[in-house]
Amino acid sequence: MSDFLYLYRGGDSSGTPEQMQQSMQKWSSWLQDLGAKGHIKDQGNPLEATGKVVKKKTSITDGPYAEAKDLIGGYTLVQAKDISEAAKLAAGCPIFDNGGFVEVRPIMQMSM
Amino acid sequence: MAEPGDHLFRREAGRMVAALTRLFGVHNLALAEDVVQDAFCRALEVWKLRGVPENPSAWLMATAKHRALDILRRERTARAYAPELGRLLESEWTLAPVVAEAFGDSAIRNDQLRMMFSCCHPRLPEIAQVALMLHILCGFGVNEVAAAFLTGHAAMERRITRGKKVLAGSKRLFDFTMSDDREVAQRLSAVHRALYLLFNEGYHGAHAESAVRADLCVEAMRLAELLLAHPVTDTPATRALIALMCLNAARLPARVDASGNLSSLYEQNRELWDQQLIAKGVRLLDHSATGTTITEFHVEAAIASIHARARSLEDTSWPMIVDLYDTLMTLRPSPVVALNRAIAIAQYQGAERGLAEIAAIAHVDRLADYPFFFAALGELEQQLGRTAEAQAHFREASSRARNMMERRFFERRAHEVGDSA
Q1: CA B385 to chain centre
Q2: Distance CA B100, CA B61 (A)
């Protein structure tokens, strides 16, 4: 088993209250399902859309600069056999309903 | 992880908008709606990864409250807010307590009531009043309201936008303390009619999807309960209206049989009727018999209570029902009421007499598109053994059916009649 980070990027979650509640219920059942199958290492956190970008000691600006459409909205740490399994699991993510996408990044291994 | 209750977001949307509109003023309804949308976006972002909090409703309210404070502080000079709160929002000393108060449970209930009264503005047609209530107080999106009324999205959007303009133009929400009794009574009866329409749309609505429909009944009852909880709006007519809703809703579980087919009162499994709702309806109906005015809700509820309390069709006291229909004809004459009266007469005076009553209905031509008119003729003809006529009537009914459920029901009756020949 290896570790992977899901980065949830973009997506517009606005809608009618009913649609938004349904969308949330899809997320929780998707994550519950992954958890039940032993794939969740850390359910992760949502990230604020605002923050600071620090480039060097003297340069601290408001950021991040990424376009809203691929701004990172949150992350989850998962476990999977390999990258292709990790990607396949991500394909069930409800973020696609709202035009967002998941970036799947392998966590680098210490031992070679 | 907690699961949010059914339709939690929708419910809370109505509550939050009511509180926010009180703070921002009704002319800033759009701002209130933005704040609600923000609160939901935030809830969605956080809850989807961290789980639903123990008290999701309080979480949403707190989020909306913080955002409201933020806006009131930052844009204090840029906008005019609720005129009735005026200076209280200007000073930091009073701002926080005023906002906290607005988000209290009893304040929210009060504001929902005021919003309900405001939605029933006399300048708006009844259907627009109902649409506006569903949208603002029940959190239905424009597309969901459009689906409820079988209208296109664009048409419903125009109707709701126009309704909001009228609301904004009214400057402040309807105020019980500042209106005279006559004004309150007039507006309350408009509210009753709108809730009645909403309930009936759910109960009899010409819609294929039954789930959507029960929702409308539930929302109408929820809003009506708000009237019952306030001394000014807890009137005999309010009680009669809710009694009627309870007694009819009690029969909802039996209206559709196990295979999803419509089932008429005559063949319903009475075991499935909700006895708790019946008891509540009967109790409210008893409590509605005060004062001097009798409304159509009183009469309709009384009819429903006779059906609800009868153990069987034979056990039903039809003469009483006919008397009540006579009263209803004086309060609200219509060919549909006359048809129901004729059907009740047939129950104890025979099919022949029923057909004669139907033939004597004034403006019977207005029933030409009403499928149950033909179904009634079919039932009575069949009782007289005139199978061919009965079958033809059921086919007529079927060709006028407003949804698949109705069509299947009439087709089945046509079939059964044919088989019995």
Answers
A1: 40
A2: 10
